[in-house]
Automatic annotation (TrEMBL):
TM annotation in the entry: 12-41, 53-76, 88-107, 113-138, 159-177, 189-210, 231-253, 273-289, 301-319, 325-343, 350-367, 373-394, 406-426, 438-456
Protein's cellular compartments: Cell inner membrane
A Pfam family annotated for this UniProt entry: MFS_1
Entry protein name: Sugar MFS transporter
Length: 471
């Protein structure tokens, strides 16, 4: 009976995946707009680095408070998503996110920094619900062994949104005048447009038939999801990953403005910021292929090479950079391909390899100058690519009825995106300066390396064991 039900549901998974992927794209785009808002608000309100990082603090702080509330409700009253369903959960997240976008209108009209931070907090709460529901939902749309591959694919389109956001978003906020065109009203229309698009996505999802996943709830004693060691370690892994990724992205424009690095203007730097996020997009597409256990190794190599070339050309068509300015990225594509080969399609091993490379790149960015420093910091994006998906799926593997509760705890750990950039901001404002402040992300990726090695050794990941048995 269960087998027949599963066979009937599988043909319907394509449409839900496409629909949810569209949602991932939109929230990736809007999230990356924070990297545009930081320098914009910093100049508009004459802020310090620490004060400007309150943008990320309020946005990602909402993830922590929202997830904490969700966990408390799920622990004492039962899992809300399991009660109302993933579809209603996703819709409520979209509507709250749209409300956050609308709040940018009064914030820009009155030109009050606190109102901007309030709008970001509401927007973050909406995205919290989406993170809890949509990520777990994608992991359930198919077998557990292919969950990392599916989540990497949807995250790739999330990264596509983050790639075009610095270009299109920078134009919408700064206008054709570039970074000299700083006005308080610049964010009003763009965020109203974002709200409208989110509501259209909500209408689309409302009218699409989505498979329902619910588990039998039983009375749980003790710590519930926290009894799983991979989840406990994964929570700190997500904290470090999101914190490191956001911190690097938040400081790239300021880093490239340094005279001993490149001395670029903000208008030019935003194109390189797109390369950072574009690298994450390429890596996630490649990760979706590499971690797909239904494809032979030979076909994987061909598909990965063709995909990398296609996405690189897509990014080239988007950013306002010459081929010579972008050609350095080909080296990172080759290195990324080799890293996937070393990872051998094992999520934990691949995670450890990528974390190691990012540590090396960050150290190069700290202790070098000029183009070498710039290339090193931009190359981090492509090796960030699979980290969230792999940490997430490794952490919730085997949680069963605790999956949504575990997901809420992992989303709570996105608090790293609020705190880590703030800590780096303190260092950047001090005598350490912007360049040496990147030692903070080094520590973050150091822990991710540990988590990957732990899971590779201790966690017998379902996907790998089934692949070996020939299932």
């Amino acid at each position: 009976m269960n087998t027949n039900t599963a066979n009937q549901a599988k043909p319907n998974y394509t449409v839900p995946l496409i629909t949810i992927t569209l949602l991932f794209f939109m929230w990736g785009f809007i999230t990356c707009m924070n990297d545009i808002l930081i320098p914009y608000l910093k100049k508009l309100f004459a802020l310090t680095f620490v004060e400007s990082m309150l943008v990320q603090f309020c946005f990602f702080g909402a993830y922590f408070l929202g997830s904490l509330a969700y966990f408390a409700v799920s622990y004492y009253k039962g899992d809300p998503i399991n009660k109302v369903g993933y579809k209603k959960g996703i819709l409520s997240g979209i509507i709250l996110s749209a409300a956050g976008c609308v709040l940018f209108y009064p914030a820009a009209t009155f030109s009050v920094y606190g109102l901007f931070l309030g709008a970001l907090f509401v927007l973050g709460l909406g995205f919290t619900i989406l993170q809890i529901t949509a990520n777990a939902y994608v992991s359930l749309l198919g077998s557990e062994e292919s969950a990392s591959g599916r989540l990497n694919m949807t995250q790739a389109f999330n990264a596509f949104g983050t790639t075009i956001a610095p270009i299109l978003g920078g134009y919408l906020v700064f206008g054709p005048g570039g970074d000299h065109n700083i006005t308080a009203e610049a964010t009003r229309v763009p965020y109203l447009v974002f709200a409208g698009i989110l509501l259209l996505v909500a209408v689309l999802i409302y009218n699409v038939k989505l498979p329902s996943f619910q588990t039998e709830e039983t009375e749980q004693k003790g710590l519930g999801a926290l009894t799983f060691p991979q989840l406990r370690l994964g929570i700190l892994g997500i904290f470090c990953y999101v914190g490191g990724e956001v911190a690097v992205g938040s400081f790239i424009i300021s880093f490239l403005e340094l005279e001993n690095v490149m001395g670029l203007t903000e208008a030019v730097s935003k194109n390189y910021l797109a390369m950072y996020w574009g690298g994450a997009m390429i890596g996630r597409f490649l990760g979706a292929i590499s971690l797909n256990h239904g494809i032979s190794q030979g076909k994987k190599a061909v598909y990965m090479i063709l995909t990398a070339a296609a996405v690189f050309l897509l990014i080239y068509s988007i950013v306002n950079l010459t081929f010579d300015q972008m050609s350095f990225f080909i080296v990172f594509l080759v290195l990324n391909f080799l890293a996937f080969m070393v990872g051998k399609s094992a999520p934990a091993r691949t995670l450890a390899v990528f974390a190691s490379i990012n540590i090396i790149l960050l150290l190069a960015a700290i202790f070098s100058s000029g183009a070498m420093a710039m290339y090193s910091i931009l190359g981090i994006g492509i090796f960030n690519s699979i980290m969230f998906s792999n940490i997430y799926t490794l952490s919730i593997s085997g949680l069963g009825s605790h999956t949504s509760q575990g997901s809420s705890l992992l989303v709570m750990a996105i608090l790293g995106g609020a705190l880590i950039p703030l800590v780096q901001g303190v260092l950047a404002d001090s005598e350490f300066g912007v360049q040496k402040s990147f030692i903070i992300p080094v520590i973050c990726y150091g822990y991710i390396l540990f988590f990957g090695l732990y899971c590779a050794k201790k966690l017998k990941f379902v996907a790998h064991s089934k692949n070996v048995s020939g299932h």
